[in-house]
Design brief:
Elements lengths: L1 H21 L6 H12 L5 H9 L9 H8 L5 H12 L18 H15 L36 H9 L9 H7 L8 H8 L5 H11 L19 H16 L16 H12 L4 H12 L7 H9 L4 H11 L10 H4 L5 H12 L2
Helix pairs in contact: 3-5, 4-5, 5-6, 8-10, 10-11, 12-13, 13-15, 14-15, 15-17
Length: about 350
């Protein structure tokens, strides 16, 4: 009897040892990347993806960088968190696990992982160091994983972008939201960066205006649906969806190309000016003007100058002047529009805008 007990104990010990040895093998980066490419060829489902990589824990150990790489594949923060927690116990370099925090869209999820690690390690709570630059409560796309149509090789360097934003964040937009948006018109930006730019104002009309004005320099255009989170009101959402459908209809050009004989007669212009002037609020007037200008028409510079004069605020005049430039059939006469602007700074801004075209 004693012999049988000893034999059973030996068998159990050997089995545990074999199991432990099976998990010692590290995942090679080349093998992991090959697997990820295979996954990305087909439809991505978080649950299926989680089951796939969760099974690897029975045989492999990951590095912190590999855990971060896999977390980036999940769309939801919950699955990112589940996989990070599953991986932490056997991760090869726990001292580097902090890089996984950056995989989350929401700061609150990063804090949950931090709390889990504290409990696991038996430590006391301190405030975690997490990246809170991007506002909590939004889902952001990862442009590095983007494979759709794009206009440039990649968005502006993140450190430079953050520096531009922080230069005015908390100090107020003294020069107006339009001038702030113009800082980025000569760069290529991601949808995530565009969302941050829009969050500098709580006015949904201004947010839509920023999206429209910067759309030509957006990298990951197929991620446009993420921008819908910026609009809470029914009207705001409806106006954004109208813009989105226009974008999709015209192949991601923000406005349809001018074709054929599209000149605006003086009588038509009179009607346009009257329609715009009847609107009570300047923001509504601006949206009406943009809608009129964008309906496949083209204008002379002197006609655009007349529309610009309708507006009271110089910032709005500047927005319309820039917006209408691509519809002008005699751009060599655009100085007539420049002369309408009241401030030298606005005139300079418009001239620099034209030079960049």
């Amino acid at each position: 009897m004693k012999i049988k007990v000893i034999l059973l104990m030996l068998i159990a010990f050997v089995a545990l040892k074999v199991t432990a040895q099976e998990k010692v093998e590290m995942v090679q980066d080349s093998f992991l990347e090959k697997k990820i490419k295979m996954i990305q060829r087909g439809p991505q489902d978080d649950d299926k993806l989680y089951r796939e990589f969760r099974g690897w824990h029975d045989h492999y150990r990951f590095t912190s960088a590999q855990v971060r790489r896999i977390c980036d594949l999940f769309r939801t923060d919950q699955k990112k968190l589940d996989f990070a927690i599953d991986s932490y116990v056997d991760v090869a370099d726990k001292e580097n696990f902090w890089i996984v925090y950056d995989a989350f869209n929401k700061m609150s999820t990063a804090i949950r992982l931090y709390d889990y690690i504290l409990v696991t390690e038996g430590g006391s709570r301190e405030e975690p160091i997490v990246d809170d630059f991007y506002d909590e409560g939004y889902d952001y796309p990862v442009w590095e994983q983007y494979n759709g149509p794009h206009r440039c090789n990649g968005p502006m360097e993140e450190q430079m972008f953050r520096s531009e934003v922080r230069s005015v964040d908390g100090k107020g937009l003294n020069n107006g939201i339009t001038d702030f948006g113009d800082r980025f018109s000569s760069y290529c930006i991601s949808i995530r960066q565009l969302m941050k730019i829009c969050m500098m104002t709580q006015d949904e009309r201004q947010r839509l205006s920023l999206i429209q004005n910067l759309w030509q320099v957006v990298y990951d255009v197929d991620n446009i649906d993420y921008l819908a989170q910026l609009f809470r009101s029914v009207k705001g959402k409806d106006e954004f969806y109208t813009f989105r459908e226009s974008v999709r209809k015209h192949g991601y050009d923000p406005l349809p190309p001018v074709v054929g004989n599209c000149r605006v007669s003086d009588d038509e212009l009179d009607g346009f000016v009257q329609t715009i002037s009847r609107q009570t609020f300047e923001s509504t007037q601006k949206m009406m003007a943009q809608d009129i200008i964008s309906k496949g028409r083209c204008f002379k510079a002197v006609q655009i100058a007349r529309i610009v004069k309708v507006f009271t605020f110089d910032t709005t005049q500047l927005e319309i002047a820039k917006y209408a430039y691509q519809y002008c059939i005699d751009k060599e006469n655009y100085y007539q529009v420049v002369d309408v602007l009241g401030y030298d700074s606005s005139k300079t801004s418009l001239m620099e805008f034209i030079k960049g075209k």
